[in-house]
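Look over this record as teaching material.
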Amino acid sequence: MRGAVQDGAPYEERRADEMIDVDAGGGDRMALAVLVQYRMATTEQLHRVIAPGVRIEQTRRRLAKLRDEGLVERITLPQAGRLRVWFPASYGVQIASEWPEFRGRRPSKGIADPTAGRLRMGHALTVTETALVFIEDARSRGELCRPLDWIPEVYHSLGAGEAVIPDALMYYRSGREGRAGSMLRAFVEVDRATMGPERLAAKLTAYARLYGYVPVSPGQRRPAFGQEPVHEAWRRHYPLFPRLLFVLDGTGPAGVTTRIDALHAAAKDPAMTLFLHAVPALAAPLADLRAQSPSEPVWHPVMDPDRKVAWSWSPHG
């Protein structure tokens, strides 16, 4: 970008600089919005999200400027070739929470300091990498999954202080723009093998509870005949219950098989039948999503783990 335009510069030259300035402001806004929403990202990850068509040096300069303005912070990992991991500063979260993109949403708590960020980094960066495999696949296919269509940690109450909080909620439109397509939504759980297979499988049970959860106020009675029925809480937000995707990382092929088997065992519970006949639940290794794409048949339905399907698969065809 050129320096400031002198007062006597031709109109065409001033207009060019004004457009560049506006674009730069939009890029800064998107960079901050993505960091506030995703919580953490490396320089390379953020570059792939917001500006894959330009040189990465532009993203580095943008992040350095946002840091000078007190909007973002970073952690530098010397043992990883001075890898820089970025997260929003509290001031950045405050600014972004006033934007329309975040209206009606619980703002991120942010990260208190670099030490807290370092301890959260492994899982947060894996969730960001999972977002990227879907966003980049959508771009390559001419479909729609924009950066802010990936929303981490959306709170879904189960009552009595319990909740289901997926690692991410994803919105995705299949089909090229201007052509027939369908809106897909998914709850995404990213498992890095830091907990046992049974605890992973318990998440399947939690989503089945959310599927059937009907909120009841204290003292409220069941609706009488002719009264409006009380619906499940999720119907306030989604026309259909989002499909459930388990992304497996942090273990080899044997560990992946063990975890898929645990999900399959949980799926055999008779209490899961209604849920799993209505909602596709699939599992796949992150390594396969990277090597191929999430649109390829790399996903194992938890009810039939010997099959491989695309993530948009439905048991009803």
Notes: Residues 1-23 have pLDDT under 50 and may be disordered.
